[in-house]
Amino acid sequence: MKLLADENMDAKIIEWLRSIGVDVLSAQEVMASAQDEEVLERANAEGRVVLTKDLDFGEMLFHENMISTGIILLRLKSAPAYFRLEIMQKYWPEIAARVSGNFVVVMQDRLRIRALLKK
């Protein structure tokens, strides 16, 4: 799986994903200060899933009918960084299996998965 981590993503989550063999490109490293639309365009061009904490991606996809390979949205902003990492580790097998073509919302106690528009 290939991911494009939005610049708001925790470094520890990116490091962990890379340590388990996930191809993670960090927007902070390669396209700092890019607009959300630019992040989405690059992810689509490279067949990457966007990993973010930014609710604007849901707005773009469901209200503006934009297309995406997949989105992982962490809805854990007020939780400490170590807890966000623990939740990602807990749900990662299911996220990895189901994210392609879907919008996956990661919450403390569950995942919410919604199909995205097809290209």
What this model shows, in words?
This protein has 119 residues and is of the alpha/beta class. The chain has a single domain (2-115), classed as Rossmann fold (3-Layer(aba) Sandwich), CATH 3.40.50. 40% of the residues lie in helices and 22% in strands. The chain has a six-stranded mixed β-sheet, with helices on both faces. The longest helix has 18 residues, at 81-98. It is globular and about 35 Å long.
- Which sequence of SSEs, written as H and E, runs from N to C? EHEHHEHEHEE
The portion of residues forming beta strands comes to 15-25%
Q: Name the assembly state.
A: single chain
CATH topology call: Rossmann fold
CATH architecture: 3-Layer(aba) Sandwich
The strands making up the biggest β-sheet line up spatially as: 2-1-3-4-5-6
Largest sheet: 6 strands, mixed
Radius of gyration: 13 Å
* General form: globular
In the CATH scheme, the class would be Alpha Beta
List keywords for this structure.
119 residues, six-stranded mixed sheet, alpha/beta, single chain, Rossmann fold, 6 strands, 5 helices
Write a short abstract of this structure.
It contains 5 helices and 6 strands, in the order E-H-E-H-H-E-H-E-H-E-E. It is of the alpha/beta class and 119 residues long.
